[in-house]
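Q: Could you predict the 3D structure of Glycerate kinase?
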Amino acid sequence: MRILVAPDKFAGTLSAVEAAEAIAEGWRRQAPGDEIDLAPMSDGGPGFVDVLNAALGGELLVESVAGPFGDTVPATVLIVGDTAYIESAQACGVHLTGGERAEHAGTAGVGELIAAAIDAGARAVVVGLGGSGTNDAGAGMLGALGAAADVPLDKGASGVNGARHVDLEPARRRTTAARLVAATDVDSPLTGLFGATRTFGAQKGIAEERMPFVDGLLESFAAITDFRTSLEKGAGAAGGLGFGLFLLGAERQAGIELVARAVGLADRARQADLVITGEGAFDFSSRAGKVPAGVAAVASEALRPCIALAGQVLVGSRETRALGMDAAYSIVDLVGEEEAFRDPGGALALLTERVARTWSD
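A: Sure. Here are the predicted structure tokens for Glycerate kinase:
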């Protein structure tokens, strides 16, 4: 058999590259004669630059930029020809905030990375959105690119409280030399019931009772910049970084589709007999915009079966099929939660070995 292995990261435990290698190791134990093609994936969140670097090559620029709370953090810009790829989570990811103080966490470092890419000669800058620990509607990014306001733009959502005016023109002029692309992992608008705060605020440390207030801050910020833009799909990506990029004229692309094209996933799926994807938690958030759904769609187009391996599977078999998978398998169900976290790579390999008994001819 020919097996295409195309997982996302297993958040907090394995990168996409590590997950793909663990799946390959487990499969070879059971079916050493099968051909395995590794295609680690990303939807724009953590791992975006590493996955594209592995697929496309290019030059990595190492930068020191502002972290969510103003401290300095390292980040990289991938330059491929005249296109630059940026992973916003490197500058404002939840791993940098610890899932706390999201109201005060800013995105200035993302703006600094965009500026560095343009200064390096990039004519297109693709910003991967996902995995953020911030919720500032991109205010910090805009400020780092030159936008001015009557309040601080680099202090997170709390900093824009009471803002009455924002001048975006300096930031727009700073970025005119390059076409901006927002590679989003979600379709959320900026505010409202399905917006950035109410959908993802809890995992960033925003208490339930604070959400109406924080959502109101973003709504007020949108009102003095461009409220209509705040309603666009993807405006709520990465705590509203999508909105900030849209204000600068960025076009939106689904991150998973962009990566799939870059790695030639469709052609590789047509050459496979089985496609395997995976992520940390397989649930209803795995639908549109996320890696498993994107990989499953490619497999379906190629008329190939697709299965998911995950740390946890939180949907039933009917829902799994609705998400485009023939089956989904859980590490925790096999070895328990403690072992899954103690040795995630080994546990994923063991799960794959068991699954191969069913799927390998």
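Q: Anything worth pointing out?
A: The longest helix spans residues 344-359.
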